[in-house]
């Protein structure tokens, strides 16, 4: 190679190094960088890896999402009970969960994160590991019925709506034909039998109590001869009260109740010598006569 050609080659190499050197990571003037492989491969490989690191640091976190469980979109609760409204969230990350109550166009904040903001102490957040942000409502009332929203603080927020239905149980003391009773007559020495039907209950129950006046009869052992048999039905319960060898002290008001939610009462009369069936018919006839007399007076 001639001296002129060598001079041109050195000039081109110098310019090339001036362009490439700044692209080498951690390159500083005067540094000695050890190249263990082919020069061009080393340069482009390191530059490419640096770009990968930049992309990994700027990649967004996975978006949170609600667990797909349609069975929790509609919840039914009995009046006076406690109920959980479920909200299971995956990949929450740094986002926050809040519960709000929707009434028309108005939203009322109930909880934010793990803190409760409702003035109603019946509402609270009851988080269940690992990801269920449950809203707990105690002593459910009819005014609690409606829509609730579990919200994730994304932009825009992710929303899951839950509808709560509150059912009011029905309790009735009925006769042999299933008709409601107000008065029942028994002959002294006979067996008192009262039937109580509990219906419109979300789940079968046996929590039925009988009272004579203010005395609880379910576990009464003082009088003797008293028994209560309760069986669960598809939408409630059927409870029977038996009192053997009835006497005049057994007369009075009897109440059948489902906890403190609903109740029904009947007036029992234990008669000595009189025919109970005649007394029942007589009572009905007297009631009819009184009603006719009132109507006649009104018409005249």
TrEMBL record:
SUPFAM superfamilies: Immunoglobulin
Name under which the protein is recorded: Lachesin-like
Species of provenance: Trichoplusia ni (Cabbage looper)
One GO CC annotation: neuron projection membrane
Alphabetical GO biological process terms: synapse organization
Signal sequence annotation: 1-18
Keywords: Signal
SMART domains membership: IG, IGc2, IGv
UniProt superkingdom: Eukaryota
Ig-like domain sequence ranges: 64-165, 169-267
């Amino acid at each position: 190679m001639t001296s002129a050609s060598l001079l041109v080659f050195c000039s081109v190499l110098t310019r090339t190094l001036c362009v490439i050197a700044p692209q080498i990571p951690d390159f500083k003037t005067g540094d000695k960088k050890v190249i263990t492989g082919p020069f061009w491969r080393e340069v482009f490989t390191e530059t490419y890896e640096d770009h990968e690191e930049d992309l990994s640091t700027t990649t967004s976190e996975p978006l949170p999402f609600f667990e797909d469980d349609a069975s929790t979109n509609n919840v039914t609760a009995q009046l006076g009970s406690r109920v959980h409204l479920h909200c299971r969230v995956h990949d929450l990350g740094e986002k926050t969960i809040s519960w709000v109550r929707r009434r028309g166009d108005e939203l009322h904040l109930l909880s934010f994160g793990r803190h409760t903001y409702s003035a109603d102490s019946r509402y609270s957040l009851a988080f269940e590991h690992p990801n269920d942000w449950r809203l707990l409502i105690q002593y459910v009332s009819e005014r609690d019925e409606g829509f609730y929203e579990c919200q994730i603080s994304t932009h825009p927020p992710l929303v899951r709506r839950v509808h709560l239905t509150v059912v009011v149980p029905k309790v009735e003391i009925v006769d042999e034909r299933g008709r409601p009773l107000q008065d029942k007559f028994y002959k002294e020495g006979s067996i008192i039998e009262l039937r109580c039907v509990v219906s419109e209950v979300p789940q079968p129950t046996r929590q039925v109590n009988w009272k004579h006046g203010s005395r609880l009869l379910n576990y009464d052992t003082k009088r003797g001869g008293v028994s209560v048999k309760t069986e669960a039905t598809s939408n409630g319960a059927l409870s029977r009260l038996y009192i053997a060898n009835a006497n005049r002290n057994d007369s009075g008001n009897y109440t059948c109740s489902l906890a403190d939610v609903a109740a029904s009462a009947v007036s029992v009369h234990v008669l000595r010598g009189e025919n109970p069936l005649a007394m029942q018919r007589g009572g009905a006839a007297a009631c009819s006569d009184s009603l006719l007399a009132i109507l006649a007076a009104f018409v005249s």
